[in-house]
Design brief:
- The chain has helices at residues 10-18, 150-154, 324-328; strands at 35-42, 47-51, 54-58, 63-70, 73-82, 90-93, 99-102, 133-137, 145-149, 172-177, 183-187, 192-197, 202-209, 212-215, 237-240, 244-249, 255-259, 270-275, 282-284, 294-301, 304-310, 313-318, 338-342, 351-353, 364-367, 371-375, 380-386.
- With 387 residues, it is mostly beta strands.
- The protein has one domain (10-386): 6 Propeller (Neuraminidase), CATH 2.120.10.
- The protein has a five-stranded mixed sheet. A four-stranded antiparallel sheet has the order 1-27-26-25, with no helix packed on it. The protein has a four-stranded antiparallel sheet with strand order 2-3-4-5, covered by helices on one side.
Length: 387
């Protein structure tokens, strides 16, 4: 059965964090933008743009670093620490310079050891950090310290609409620290948005995302039985899990969540949800998208892996414009990702692709005084700045 397990010295660092904060190059549809490479990185994913040329990043080997841009000189990559994982952790800076890191699932659930490996590829670590865990780190600490066990919470908060026989599954993927000291976590396997109180480890469910009826896309290759095939015929209706990969806080203060979309990963079926701050136990329902505290903000995306917010709107990052499954199955051109600006309703065009044709498997996006992207997610990559 196919499924997705969406699995300096200390003083200088402290000042930098407290201060405000040969990969793809591209231009948008009208040639107004390019991407400038700021610093080479290894399989980057996590990103938090602090402003004033300072950006937090994470890499495939578990390193988390501060990239400091310098005039007329190469950027300086300051390694802050390491969190050994089999996938780059998410990262977000909270109040008082505290850095939060989030590890996902260490692999597919016991019920499915042959799940697609896109978001759960293993790179063995000698002493792996605990999976599905929120950590915090401060300048001067030798290593990040665990704050909350997400999977332990999900064991008692199962997904009521689970489609894969594992309702307590957990793969926390997206992270954003709030100004009040709490942290939002989007769980790709739990299909929900959680709020964590780091001081106590308390966790509450903000919203649960419901599955959506989609149709198997045309053009997928044949898959042999030993690899989980055959796939259902094109056009077959399937109730597909949302796979909540990403979360950000908009300029309006609302919380936004993006979907990857589970099997069959039909292009154009990933949604962005807008949730009222302080909400608990809301439902994000694709059949009633304007009802309740969780409302659909935008639709028509493919395999969203990150969101960011800026004064112009919400930025949605697609891993592959042909879907994660298209990439997994080797479809030609499936390495091409996309970065889209979603502006407020009433503005035209509402959705605009910023750097078409050149982003390859991007890992993350964030916005401060500039728009930053990291990627490719696998292999040699870089921190890049939109200009």
């Amino acid at each position: 059965m196919w499924k997705i397990t969406a699995r300096l010295g200390i003083g200088v660092v402290a000042v930098a964090l407290a201060a405000a904060t040969t990969p793809a190059l591209a231009g948008d549809t009208h040639g107004h933008h390019t991407l400038r490479t700021i610093a080479p990185l290894n399989g980057p994913r996590g990103i938090d743009a602090l402003g004033h040329g300072r950006t937090l990043v994470t890499e495939t080997n578990g390193d988390f670093s501060l990239v400091v841009e310098r005039r007329h000189k190469p950027a300086r990559v300051i390694r802050l620490g390491n969190l050994p994982t089999d996938f780059p952790p998410a990262i977000s800076r909270g109040p008082h310079g505290t850095i939060y890191l989030l590890t996902g699932a260490s692999g597919p659930p016991p019920s499915d050891r042959t799940a697609p490996r896109l978001l759960a590829r293993s790179a063995a670590a000698p002493t792996p950090a605990p999976g599905t865990t929120l950590f915090k780190w401060r300048p001067g600490w030798k290593a990040p310290r665990p704050v909350a066990d997400i999977s332990a919470y999900q064991a008692h908060d199962p997904d009521p609409w689970d489609q894969e026989g594992f309702p307590a599954d957990s793969n926390p993927f997206g992270l954003v620290a709030l100004r009040d000291g709490t942290v939002l976590v989007s769980d790709a396997a739990g299909n929900d948005l959680l709020r964590v109180w780091p001081r106590t480890g308390r966790i509450k469910t903000v919203a649960r995302l419901m599955p959506r009826l989609v149709r198997v896309p045309a053009g997928l290759p044949d898959v042999p039985p030993e690899e989980g095939g055959p796939l259902p015929p094109a056009g077959t209706p399937i109730l597909s899990e949302p796979v909540a990969t990403s979360v950000t806080v908009g300029a309006d203060g609302y919380w936004y969540v993006g979907e990857l979309r589970g099997f069959p990963a039909t292009p154009g079926t990933s949604q962005i949800w807008r949730i009222k701050p302080g909400t608990r136990n809301a439902t994000c329902d694709p059949l009633h998208p304007r009802k309740g505290a969780c409302k659909r903000y935008a639709d028509g995306f493919t395999s969203i892996t990150d969101l960011a917010a800026g004064p112009k709107g919400i930025y949605a990052l697609e891993l592959s414009k042909k879907s994660w499954l298209g990439f997994e199955l080797g479809l030609p051109g499936a390495q091409e990702g996309g970065l889209f600006l979603v502006r407020r309703p009433g503005q035209h065009p509402r959705v605009r692709e910023l750097v078409p044709g050149k982003l390859m498997l991007p890992g993350g996006v964030d916005v401060s005084d500039h728009v930053y992207v990291v990627g490719p997610l696998f292999g040699p990559g870089a921190l890049m700045r939109l200009r």
